[in-house]
Design goal:
Layout: H1 50-58, E1 63-70, H2 76-86, H3 92-104, H4 120-125, E2 132-137, E3 142-147, H5 155-162, E4 167-173, H6 178-183, H7 188-198, E5 204-209, H8 218-235, E6 242-246, H9 262-265, H10 273-278, E7 292-300, E8 309-317, E9 319-321, E10 325-329, E11 333-342, E12 345-347, E13 349-351, E14 355-361, E15 373-375, E16 383-384, E17 386-393, E18 404-410, E19 413-426, E20 433-436, E21 446-452, E22 458-459, E23 471-476, E24 479-489
Parallel strand pairs: 1-3, 1-4, 4-5, 5-6
Antiparallel strand pairs: 2-3, 7-8, 7-15, 8-14, 9-13, 10-11, 10-15, 11-12, 11-14, 16-22, 17-21, 17-24, 18-19, 18-23, 19-20, 19-21, 23-24
Length: 490
Amino acid sequence: MQALGLGSAKSTKTETVANGASPSDQAAPSVIQKPVEPLAKIPASKRINVLEEYAKRSMGKPLTTICIIGHVDSGKSTIVGHLMYQLGEINHRTMHKYERDSQKIGKGSFAFAWVMDETEEERARGITMDIATNGFETEHHKFTVLDAPGHRDFIPNMISGTAQADAAVLVADATTGSFEAGFDAHGQTKEHALLARSLGVQQLVIAVNKLDAMNWDQARFEEIVQRLTAFLVQAGFRKNKLTFVPVSGLTGENLTSRSTMAELTAWYKGPSLLEAIDAFETPTRLVDRPFRMGVTDFFKGGIGSSGGVSVAGSIDSGHLQVGEQVMVVPGNEIGAVKAMQVNDEVVNWGVAGDSILMTLSNLDILNLSNGCVLCSPQHPVPVTSSFIAQIVVFDIKVPITSGFSVVLHHQSADEPAIISKLLMTLDKSTGEMIKKNPRHLSKGATAKVRINMPLRPIPLETFKDNKNLGRVMLRREGETVAAGIVTEVT
């Protein structure tokens, strides 16, 4: 992971891609010296100095996005739903209705999960299929929470959600056999953790769930902590950024307040889950870069009763205000911002890190697609069918060779791709070249490769210019084979 530049070094004006990378790879990203004038003409009386307003907002509680990840049936949605209920975000009447309706179909234990799993199919099957979004407030933060699906069939949706996150909560099922099923071969506990780290998540809380079913057994908790810590540190997480919390999503024990249960307090003196989440550090936002926002959803109709097309996503860099114009790439179509919401609140502006819903006018919905990016018309995102990436190879069955076909995941996009050339293998710790033009790449290898997009080009930037737009995932036959960063767009 160090060789991918995924370490947790503090942000500075010059960001390095990898330890020991070449000087060209360590070049400082371009910085906008003054605000970019939008193409749309906004009257002076309505123009907002977004940077000033952001500075004022930063004096209060910062907005932080967290993603809930983990193996299927580990209790992710139940934890989030019960936590939201205890915080008063879900009222008694609504919760009683969920309990009554879930009991009618013989799934009474899923009542809290229904807070996040809203579709009939999700409720009937008892699994999360798409990213569910909600929010809550703590003493120090305002959180947007993304509940990711745990089933391996919906890994693309999990990747799309985690790509927007500043931090994550990994849920591990403590019951006998269930933890092992998620942690061992083909389990999603390991894959979700690897994907989260590769997508830039550095802070992780591990909720050891269903420990009530194990009679709050200290030995079982410590066994899980030991096994997961060894794996997570090897995956690139810093040990001091990992917090393990024993909880029960079903009973609500140790979720929003520290447990007083004697069986738990006899050996656990740490924080509740909410206290651990509230200790997350808010990352530095790229507010002084050109505007970039990956589109995760879009639909006809505007906010409220207004017309137009609405798009949702998380702002990767820069800022935006109502009245400005944005460009959709690929396609280079331009629309004007009519209205905006951040966490369901109507606002006039948004900045990097905000999860946003906006309504655009003068734009046909046919110009939007999964994986498209909204950007500043004066500083458009590069669109390419070929680029060079520095990748780390995961646990693969077949070595990677030239011509290796994969599915490339980039934010919410997933497109067929080909690893057309193996350029060199690299030393994991220094990033220096070991071998030029290797014949194949095996498990654990770090390498630079050329990747081609045979069907259509995609918008992306180098990692040193924009970390969120410079990360890629490579999957094949339902398995993640590699993760990497874009070093050169050709």
